[in-house]
Amino acid sequence: xxxxxxxxxxxxLLTALCLTFIVFFLTNLYPNLExxxxxxxxFRMTDEEVASYLGRNGYLQPxxxxxxxxxxxxxxxxxxxxxxxxxxxxxxxDTPAADAPRFCGILQGDWGYSTVFRTEVSGxxxxxxxLTGRLMLWVMLLMVPSALILxxxxxxxxxxxxxxxxxxxxxxxxxxxEYVSGVLFIAIFASSAVGLKWFKGTATSAMENxxxxxxxxxxxxxxxxxMGYIARMTRASMAEVMTAQYIRxxxxxxxxxxxxxxxxxxRNALIAPFTVIMLQFPWLLNGVVIVETLFNYKGFGWTLVxxxxxxxxxxxxxxSVVSVIVVLVTQLISDIGYVYxxxxxxxx
Length: 348
Prior knowledge:
two-stranded antiparallel ribbon, 2 strands, MetI-like fold, mainly alpha, 2% strand
């Protein structure tokens, strides 16, 4: 198992380097840098002024050098100004040039400075991750148990009326996009047009003081969309297990149907849904952009939209790094869990 985990970690690190380099390359294309210069200066800047701005801020260095400085494996760039002062990537107003570190990349905890929010990127990422993490927690608590119950009930008796009813419900929820179900929920449960003012149509106040009234609708909107997919996977896995030879043997021995389901079928039926459930974490981190925008909940997905639309390169890179890490870690946990759940797999 140790060798298995070490191999997976090695592949994770290599994948993370490749993905972050691709994102870094795309965000540092010259049109993006030109747009950044004009956003920070003015849109009437000439090509010479744009080049001067980019040169003063270290953007015109070779791409591998910039990537190494961003990672923190190469010394940050420095440049002497006209007045003799030294400036550079690792030098800011609060740190004298003599005391500034040579390396200041993400490996040293320096995530850069947001040109849109005018603050450190690390602070933004921490705050927005906390908000989306709270949303993810309640979504998973609602979505996973409900989906597993629906899937197991549908798969226990394949082709029955219960199976057809629950499968139809699961397909309907998965086929309905969040922006459709979210708008419907707001119109029905939070609008004066229908009269059912049970919830608030916005989750802005939930950022500081979450309650059932201002937080349930976004949670329900996301949970319903993911619930159907997990339920369908659980149903298919459960139906397959219920036709296995050892289940038939248990029936012939006179074992009661509840015991067959709980003691023999359930564990094996949960192997495939476990992987699907783990894949929900990356989706919840970045895939809730529509819901966070619809309910004005300024979490991680909302921050991704702001960074991309405003060409905030440092913030966009930080969001990408966090997303890559979450995807790779959940994949690692999924692989390890799959090995433990499935005794037929041997790891050497």
